[in-house]
Design a protein that fits this description.
The chain is an all-alpha fold. 79% of the residues lie in helices and 0% in strands. The protein is globular. 49% of the residues are buried.
Length: 258
Amino acid sequence: MLELLPTELPWLLAIAFVAGLVDAAVGGGGLIQLPGLFTVLPQHTPAALLGTNKFSSVFGTGAAAWRYARSVRFPWRPVLLAAATAFAFAFLGATAVSLLSKDAVRPLVLALLIVMLGYTLAKKDFGALHRPRTVGRRELGIALVMGAVIGFYDGFFGPGTGSFLIFLFIRFFGLDFLRASAASKVVNLATNVAALSFFVPSGNVLLAFAVPMAAANVAGSVTGTRLALRGGTPLIRRLFLLLVVVLIARMAWDTFAG
């Protein structure tokens, strides 16, 4: 039986576990898992690797969302509204890939990440306290626009989606980092499912790798969620800042040297 297992699988399982752990706490699992897939399986098409990445990560994101929903409270109405619009607009973002150049948006994303990092560092209490705002028409409108923009972005480009969601849930809904991270998983789950509804029917999922990687991603997600719940807002804030710095470095490299 062992001889039938692909030799690349142990590496991919380790990558999927770490990606699930990081993603559950603060997002950004794709920064680990997707480059890992391209490195370990260079013989496969980009579409197949993207589909395999989404298949694996959707289970980890789902496990994190379920665990957070049982452990922390956050405003469900705007979160579900944002998730619904993100699901729909993720399709539009995916179709726009053939019409627009991703290189054109990299400088804008880089600038937004730098602004987000500066804002978070300048406001020491940003995301430290849970001060949820009353959900009225304004907040529901913000959730609608937020879901549309983030859904389109995730379908079209993707890097930093989790970080943007956490920042926006803190900024506009008064959540702390822990609850913002929990809310972001629900929206992220919707965009992942939307992507899968394209990748699976088109046959762009390597199931021999995707299924065991999904199990490893869930194991990492459970571990990461447990660490986040135990460490609370201070831990997630530190991880968030670290992830944004990594995103800025990667985006700067892709923009100016890639």
